[in-house]
Design brief:
Layout: H1 2-21, H2 25-36, H3 49-79, H4 81-96, E1 102-105, H5 109-121, E2 125-129, H6 132-140, E3 145-147, H7 153-158, E4 166-169, H8 174-187, E5 192-196, H9 202-209, E6 213-215, H10 217-230, H11 232-242, E7 250-255, H12 267-270, E8 277-284, E9 287-290, E10 303-308, H13 310-322
Parallel strand pairs: 1-2, 1-4, 2-3, 4-5, 5-6
Antiparallel strand pairs: 7-10, 8-9, 8-10
Helix pairs in contact: 1-2, 1-3, 8-9, 10-11
Length: 324
């Protein structure tokens, strides 16, 4: 506001000198600046009475506005607000360039674990939180953050919800996760939303709000402990396959996009038995088909679960993208 007011005074002062004294634009601008700052630098030509009266007006208004602007800038710098404004604009530009990213709502115990796993996987994401301490911790870890209430449409738009690949509602309160899920679903009907449920009765509400998947940390923790107790080697194998830095065997999923050249083509053309990738399952219309036949023809929106060496998985991804 202060800078805008100062710019307006400089513009008006310059125009006044051009009209009254008929000076060139640069000379008029130069005299306006030296007048406002009370430096003084001489005039291109002797002033008329009208010019002198205009100078008095420019000094009276301009010096006050100039002083006010300096005080505002000093206050901003002293309180650290200037740095925050610059950082916020830089973050806004960074988020504005993101596409097919994830929006992580909440940087608590669950959210911080998700953020670190995303970082290991090389997955682009932005953190949305309203808690100052959480935002400081996220920024200190080098994560991109957006300050605001994730349930508000403007905050989600600032995080690029229209361009996002998915959203994770990982806040501690079920009510907050429900509101975030509902807001995100309204703004982007095709968004993949994973929501955290702390209580069993929250799952139905999250499903109605539009959550694609619902996760209960306590249920998952209990199931994992039971699985480790009864099948420790099998659980260790799955964990190893899911690790981002595993160099021998990784698990990945792909989607047959709308208009893909692979629609109607058989699985044998994409991943033959002789290849280095095994298609473990194809999910179609919500139903999972394990170890599908090589004659299975792909349909639009099929989801493929494949396992193989990193090089083979990359080759499969390239083939799906290129259609070759």
């Amino acid at each position: 506001m202060a800078l805008t007011l100062l710019a307006a005074v400089i513009l008006i002062g310059t125009v006044g000198y051009v009209e009254i004294e008929h000076w060139p634009w640069f000379d008029a601008f130069y005299v306006t600046i030296t007048t406002i700052t009370t430096i003084g630098g001489g005039e291109p030509t002797p002033m008329t009475t009208g010019g002198k009266m205009w100078t008095v007006a420019v000094v009276a208004v301009g010096f006050g506005v100039f002083t006010y602007t300096l005080l505002r800038l000093f206050t901003y710098a002293l309180e650290g607000r200037l740095g925050n404004v610059v950082l916020e604009r830089r973050t806004r530009r960074r988020v504005g360039k993101m596409i097919e990213h994830f929006i992580l709502c909440g940087f608590g115990r669950v959210g911080s674990e998700i953020a670190h796993l995303f970082t290991k996987e090389g997955v682009p994401f932005v953190i949305v939180d309203i808690n100052a301490d959480s935002l400081r911790r996220a920024a200190a870890a080098g994560f991109t953050t957006v300050n605001g209430d994730a349930a508000e449409a403007e905050t989600l738009r600032a995080a690029g919800v229209e361009r996002a690949r998915g959203l994770l509602a990982a806040m501690d309160g079920d009510e907050a996760n429900i509101y975030v899920t509902l807001s995100a679903r309204v703004l982007n009907p095709n968004l993949f939303i994973i929501a955290r449920a702390n209580r069993r009765d929250a799952e139905a509400k999250l499903r109605l709000a539009g959550a694609s998947r619902i996760i209960s940390p306590y249920q998952i923790g209990g199931r994992r402990m039971a699985s480790l107790a009864t099948r420790p080697t099998a659980v260790e194998f799955v964990d190893t396959v899911l690790l981002a830095n595993n160099s021998e065997l990784i698990l990945e999923d792909f989607v047959i996009a709308s208009g893909s050249p692979w629609i109607g083509r058989p699985l044998s053309a994409l991943a033959p038995d002789s290849g280095g990738v095994i298609v473990l399952a194809i999910k179609r219309s919500g139903e999972m088909h394990f170890r599908p036949s090589l004659a299975t023809q792909f349909a639009e929106r099929d989801e493929i679960v494949a396992a193989g060496a990193p090089e083979g998985i990359r080759t499969l991804d390239q083939r799906l993208r290129s259609g070759e």
